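G., the chain you wanted modeled:
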Amino acid sequence: MKFSVWPGPAQPWESTLELALHAEKRGYDGIWYADHFMPNAEDVSGPTNEAWTTLAALAASVPRIRIGPLVTGNTYRHPAVLAKMAATVDNISAGRLVLGLGAGWQENEHQKYGIEFSTLGGRMRRLEEACQVVKSLFLNDRTDFAGRYYQLTDAPLVPKPAQRTLPLLIGGGGEKVTMRIAATYADEWNVWGGPEILKQKGAVLEEHCRAIGRDPKEIHRSAQGMLVLTDDKEMIERMKASGRPVIAGNGAQVREVVQAYADAGVDELIIPDFNLGSGSARLGQYDRFWDEVAIHFR
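Predicted structure as tokens:
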């Protein structure tokens, strides 16, 4: 199983780089970054770094691990522009980018920045067209596309990505539409949730794959949950009762949870730092997870 880290976008660049370099040194496989412009809260004044410029910096600064947005909000950028950005970052990283893409959901960002916030159906239709546009630009010398939302005429994309097939990750667990789009276009699929959710939604993904004649094993699966690695039994129970996806317990207990993810077909487990503190405390939590849990799955 692969293991990756996910620094929150509110922290300074120096902190993000520190975690990325530390994770690479310890053996982690990737670093992911959220694509948002402001907090999802009434007070939108909190710091929020832009994802793609951060990814470009990570591509140049961190030499080994995979990088990617988790996930790009499709509504924020025209897909042809996004494809150009992704190809550039992939070349900077010498072929380590994963293009994570989702429909976009955070309404306040659209309102504050004057970006159209369509209905859910409208955003999903845009996402499906965007997948077609991006993949065509990556693969073909020129692209013509006459969609409902996007139109391209004899469009080039030069230089191409460093990877012959730059992986497209679709994020989301909507069973009727999002997962059908993932089954059709994705090289990777990601969703929040515990092992039971992943098992259930993995079966849905496989049904969509069968409907179009695709081998579901072609799609790499990843998931994430909040890590609570502690011997404090009260904290463990409190976090489990919070209703959020959590990976909670002491080392042995967390290994059991990770094994359940593996049994559910998860190929990569992503650990956010949102609740892990800062500085040496945060790095220590990642070190403990690696030494007591991750190393047993390598």
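The first helix runs from residue 13 to 26.

Shout if anything looks off.
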